Amino acid sequence: MAEIFPDKAIMYEDEIPGGAHWSMLMRKGTTLHLIDKVGGVNVGMLFYNPTDKLERYNAPDTLKCQHTFKLTKGHCLYSDMGRIFCSIIDDSVGWHDTVGGNLTDANMKKKWAVKTYQEQRNDWTISGEHGFLVELAKHGLNQRDMSANLNWFSRMFADDEGNLNFDSANSKAGDYVDLRFEMDTLVLFHTCPHPLNSATDYPKKTLIYQVRKAAPVADDDFCMNSRPENQRGFQNNAIYHLQGGQ
After folding, report:
1. Is residue 140 pLDDT above 80, yes or no?
2. Which of 73, 114, 128, 227 has the maximal Cβ count within 10 Å?
3. CA geometry: angle at 85 spanning 151 and 170, to 5°?
4. What is the number of domains present in the chain?
């Protein structure tokens, strides 16, 4: 059962089982602490500005402005308006995927036996595509609003022939990542398998998540100063907040 402690460092805590989905509003100045409970979890995630949902996570800008293919501690996640949704302030994994995409209904049916809700109830199997569409609908959005997502705890690597492969041992039980939110952000996420996961059976891995209070951003903040581009991103956020944005 979810635990709510509004006056403590950990304000909220809950678990999401494998093959499930959720969405929530993260406020500026809070941290989302994600924990891989048993190892091998994949967490697909999308970000939107809750007051202007046309502003959303931009994977190409996030990668190119920080000169990276992966995400880890020190990186910031950018919107398509050049603002920073959140910063990765801590990370025990070291590699999170932001190019692998999302598991579609069609690909899921090719990989695993489909279990319907009518037959299996909460043990049914769904795709990341299905999970995102349900959460988008809750906020007045639909399929055309689905942008390129990232996959926490997952890693893809290239072999000698240049083929992309999935690392099934990238994340261990207890691994975590901390996201400090630099502006109010609508967060959509699911725990459906990574599209390149080749497991024989549909993998269901549990995610623990906590909402924590974040310390103020200091002048020597690692994320802000890891790249000159991030300094400009934080400046864009400051202008946005000066104009009344949250």
Report:
1. yes
2. 128
3. 20
4. 1
